[in-house]
Amino acid sequence: MSSSEPQGIQRLKGTEDILGDRAVAFERVESAARKVFKDFGFKELRTPYLEEKDLFCRALGSGTDVVQKEMYEFRDKSDELVALRPEGTAGVVRAYLENNCHKTESLSKFFYVGPMFRRERPQKGRLRQFHQLGVEQLGADSPLSDAETIHCLAVFLETIGLKAGDYRVKLNNIGYPEERRAYRAVFGAYLTAHRAELCEDCHVRLEHNVLRVLDCKQERCRQLVRASGAGRLADHLSDDSKRHHEAVQRALDAVGVRHEEDPFMIRGLDYYTKTVFEFTHAKLGSQDALAAGGRYDGLVELFGGPRTGAVGFAAGLERLLIALQAQAPEAAENGYEDTCFVIARGEEPLNEAYALLARLRRAGLAAVMDLRPDRSFKSLFNQANKVRARWAIVLGEDELKTRTVKIKDLQHSQERSFPLDGLEAVVKDIRNHFQG
Ligand code: HAM
Questions:
Q1: The CATH number fitting domain 337-433, selected from 3.40.50.300, 3.40.50.800, 2.70.40.10, 1.10.3720.10
Q2: Which of the residues in the chain have pLDDT under 70?
Q3: Distance from the CA of 292 to the center of ligand 1, in angstroms?
Q4: pTM of this prediction?
Q5: How close is the Cα of 56 to the center of ligand 1, in Å?
Q6: How far is CA 18 from CA 15, 100, 338, in A?
Q7: CA–CA separation, 212 vs 63, rounded Å?
Q8: What separation in Å is there between the alpha carbon of 135 and the centre of ligand 1?
Q9: What is the pLDDT of residue 340?
Q10: Tell me, what's the pLDDT at 16?
Q11: Domain 20-176+238-330 -> CATH class
């Protein structure tokens, strides 16, 4: 701990202060997400971070790891059992019903950006407070909606600098709960006969949710699953589920989203029906999912609404930044900002520069300045570079006498003089006054 840290108070494990370049990177990815999601017709929905605990137990499934082991839950001072949201879908469904969207619109398209909380063991790409960027469509039965959702994610990734080929899109069809029930019985019987060969975690899965054995990462369990005498889940699905899935595949082909089938992908939340998908990136290590989602046709009904087709995804912002750093460091790099750094020395120039600063801001430009009178030009230029201001506007004693300023393009190392009066107009299309 450095001596400047307040003694005894540090941030909690698995949480992060986001500042400097990292805050800029967060903002860049978030605003790209907002732009792409809006282009696809999604509207922002901000749900509370704190909800009744029961919302998540019922939506995600009370036997899931997220609910059993990872949720931050507590009784508040009026003894209400609440939880910090571990994901966004449950809150969106609650808000959709509570705000009567099911009665006022036949299709609701929402996006969200914000922190989620899971008490997992922190490691690379796994935090206790992390950030998701997600979309949800409710009132969407068509397989084209699944494809549109996946396509939206692919377009967003491309916008931030992750190209197809940098990541894999894995797809599976897990059908409806009643279709899985039949498979669960035969698969469970097969695994029980091979119980001794399963890992410890899978012994627990065998008791509570046998299908989770399908995506166990342990090699022994994987071999057992692949050699399964119980056949595949796909063999137990209805014609309707199969047709839906084939239509999703065709629609993805039509918009050029490369995808592969992963018949063992099952996902860790109980609400999924039919389509599930994951976007994975090799540079993420063991936590390799950049984003994931699927269809959840039963969730609105579970909370008392009408049967409603729904599909969505959530991407992990911190994981996107790891992938970007590994993949396209130049895209992750922070470039010059369109900011004017006003540089002045001496009392009179400083006062004039301060008035100029206000004029520039009033004209809608980003303008900053060190207001202390005793800074050297060298240290002021260093500051301008540090904040990555594209433009330095210099106002010294000489400039004041001739009522001019020097403008330096710090990115391309060019310099020109301009009249101080009416500078707002020059600065507004400043790029045209410099090459590059
Ligand atoms: P999820 O797979 O639990 O799905 O999380 C989605 C993404 O959030 C993951 O792929 C990962 O990038 C990120 N993520 C999850 N946990 C952590 C963590 N502890 N630290 C850092 N990143 C993490 C859901 O949350 C569903 N609600 C997705 C969805 C939306 N399905 C339908 N609509």
A1: 3.40.50.800
A2: 1-6, 328, 330-334, 436
A3: 6
A4: 0.91
A5: 14
A6: 10, 36, 22
A7: 11
A8: 12
A9: 95
A10: 97
A11: alpha beta
